[in-house]
Amino acid sequence: MEIYALYDEVKNKEQVFKLIKQQMDFIGSKKTIEDINVSLQNALSNRSARLVVCAEDESIKGFAFFNLASGLESGGDYIWINELFVSPEYRRQGIAKALLEAIESFAKDNSVKYLALSTSTNNANARKLYQELGFDADLTLWVDKSL
Questions:
Q1: pLDDT (tens digit, 9 = 90+) per residue, 48-104?
Q2: pLDDT tens, position by position, 17-43
Q3: Could you tell me the residue range of the domain that residue 106 belongs to?
Q4: What is the reported pTM?
Q5: What CATH number did the domain enclosing 80 receive?
Q6: ∠ CA(113), CA(115), CA(116), 5° rounding?
Q7: Angstrom distance (rounded) from CA 14 to CA 21
Q8: Do the strands 76-86 and 114-117 form a parallel or antiparallel pair, or are they unpaired?
């Protein structure tokens, strides 16, 4: 696992872009490769964003993207996991678990007190994984607004 804080450090960008596009298509977001490139450049210009990539033999198998933030409820810094995706051909091999464990290790090394994310209530595999890793999964209404 590699955790990137800066855009220029990301290896195999084109493969990373393709996998992010696959995830965007999966969730119904119609982003182009150029949109993804610009978004990733913007996101990794912020000191709080990180990209975690699982790669082996030049193949990008999965990625996670998260932000560091501070919260009143957590009593300190927390991580919000924005994206977690494993390419369909590499699923059920422990890659999502390894990505989450890499984030948790990063969190512990950086005195982060809390991890959070959201997933669809219909995504039984993801919910099962999160529960196995000790996340509390409750029914929460996601509220957002595009500007």
A1: 899 999 998 888 999 999 999 887 667 788 999 999 999 999 999 999 999 999 999
A2: 999 999 889 888 888 999 889 888 888
A3: 2-132
A4: 0.79
A5: 3.40.630.30
A6: 140
A7: 10
A8: parallel
